[in-house]
Amino acid sequence: MPRLAIAPEVPRDLGALAQPVRRDAVIAMRRFLQSTTSAPHPERVRNTRDPRVATLRLADRHRGVVVRQRDVFWMLTVLPDAEAWSYAQRHRFAVNAAIGVAEIWDAQGLERVEPALRRSADSTDWRLFAHVCDTDLLGLGIDAQLLPLVRLITTDANLDALEPLLPETQFAPLSVLGQGGSVAEAWRALDTYVAVPATAVDLTDLVAALERTPDRAAFVPNPSVLDRVLDAPHWCTFLYPTQHRLARQDGYDGPVLVTGGAGTGKTLVALHRAAHLAETGAGRILLVTFSQGVATDAAAKLDLLVDDEEVRARIEVGNVERLAHRIVAEAEGRAPLLVGRPDLAALWQEASEISGDLHSPAFLLREWEQVILAQNLCTVQEYLAVDRPGRSVTLGYEERTAVWKAIEHVTGRLRESGRRTLLQLASEASTLLGRSTGDLLGADGPGHEPYRHIVVDEAQDLHPAQWRLLRAAVPHGPDDLFIVGDPHQRVFDTRVALSSLGIKAETHRLTVSHRLPQEILTWGVRLRGGGPADGLVEGITELVGFRATHPGARPAVREYTSHEAELAGLVTHVKEWLGDGVPPEEIAVAARTGELVRSAKAALIEAEPAVRVSTLHGLKGLEFRRVALIGVADGIVPSADALTPATEDPTARAHDLQRERGLLYMACMRASERLYVSYSGRASPFLPP
Ligand SMILES: Nc1ncnc2c1ncn2[C@@H]1O[C@H](COP(=O)(O)OP(=O)(O)OP(=O)(O)O)[C@@H](O)[C@H]1O
């Protein structure tokens, strides 16, 4: 039976056809896979540059272009007859000698530019690649047939003219070398196209090459897989090479950490990893997302990704708070009571008074969360002995004793009333798992860890107590923890290095944003400062090398003279976007404060109530075509309430400012198409000039 290998253009081409034509084409493809008598057969095309190319007549005046080797037909595109023949004649197909991936060459285009390159070369002795020997070029996978042409290139402009005609795997290393980069740097550029490492490359084996090129070919053995590939969104089937390599690799020795800027596909990689572990491994998998809202979205995506119900049932999606809640509830036989914000605030106020107003309620809360709960300190002796990383105000023996007493007031009152905070719950849940010999949460194997694998998204915002819980919930071993996150988008005070928690992860990085247009990315990086961020990895993470795949509109920053005028401007913009045909659910409006959110909601109620309006925090983990951020003004962003007074703790204040900047950056990075930012009064100091 023949197999089809579907290129990503095919679902797109079919989607663009009139419904009856599309239907006929899909029926023809199904028949082809089943080799029925009425199945289309490969028809040779005259004057092709590659003898393996043929077309399949799929519908009235429409053909699929295929490249055949053995039982595999790589379908590249579906086009009207004349265009399909022309495509078939124009291209040739090859295997990259260095990394073994399949390549599509615009052979006719290259033949056409050759005379111009020769003329340009005749006028000068200068050659762009004179400094690189043939052996190095061939070693980088430069095709032997291309080499004479490469030797004719004299300028960057010559090389740029070749870009649309060459496979990316040929252009990328040449581009690095042309800009004066070393052979090693060119190799690094080529390595980003490796999804499945090749041990030995056979230039004649196109099928093996296609198996190493999952971003260009999805193997379809039968009609039901065909339907899935044609109907599913692109990300379900075609991960980009680096994403694929990370998500679908067989067996990591232990924890893995993948960092990357906004829109680089970290969440998609996490979803594919969970799917891969469920398909290939044994035991239950927990996919940890930031919030329950995001969990619903992730669960829906997993439903699309994993076809087999039994496999899908092995993946549970949830957040750490819920996990902690369930473990404590199961151990205690009833749902734990949580303390409400106002009650907690009143307790910290009392604690501050007990300390003789030496320390503010906010200072005490931070000390509790960032030192005591972070390091799981249970006695005053432990507290007196530890370092207090990230806290710049030094506390002597007397002061620490007083602070401990004040904090004990809060924990004691909570204990008396049987209430807990979410972080306390996480802490207790990890202790419970550590103590348990049974099967909390119904682990199916021996031991007390309820999961075999845990995959964590948005890892930058987890607290050490939550990490301890996750670590305790999965046994140490191959593929135990797969973690993705972006320290630059952190919106809480949790700058924790995984290694400090005993999680020694091998680290990887994604650098290409597939969501953001370059203009929004560049502006956002200026806003964020581009500089380092700490957390997750030991030391710091840089934004260097973070880039986009496509251009777009620059962010629109608007100044208004009053809040009313700003709201009117927002309504005008949202109406314009709706007028452009953008569905309301693809538009998000957000602001730093609840009050601004309410006023935006009121202003938009008539224009379009279905547009999402939330706080900046509420955008975390989401994506929209168009995003409007209002009230990005001095005094609002950063929020004065969220900043520690410099007199109290300058380091805490610096951290608060960085966190507020990260929050605004995260919100800006949600836009895949347009970003609109407005303020009345003075602009937020975070906005780039
Ligand atoms: N393989 C892919 N195929 C199609 N689209 C992709 C692919 N990878 C990324 N994208 C696009 O990029 C978007 C961002 O992906 P994802 O949400 O996984 O990124 P992220 O790194 O988790 O982003 P953030 O950190 O900003 O939340 C996707 O919604 C999709 O539009």
From TrEMBL:
Known catalytic reactions: Couples ATP hydrolysis with the unwinding of duplex DNA by translocating in the 3'-5' direction; ATP + H2O = ADP + phosphate + H(+)
EC numbers, comma separated: 5.6.2.4
Keywords: ATP-binding, Helicase, Hydrolase, Isomerase, Nucleotide-binding
Keyword RNA-binding included in the entry's annotation: no
EC top class, as a word: isomerase
Domain UvrD-like helicase ATP-binding: 239-549
UniProt-annotated binding residues for ATP: G260, G261, A262, G263, T264, G265, K266, T267
Any Pfam family hit: UvrD_C
Keyword check for ATP-binding: yes
TM regions (residue ranges): none
One GO MF term: helicase activity
PANTHER family assigned to the protein according to its UniProt record, in alphabetical order: DNA 3'-5' HELICASE, UVRD / RECB / PCRA DNA HELICASE FAMILY MEMBER
Protein's name according to its UniProt entry: DNA 3'-5' helicase
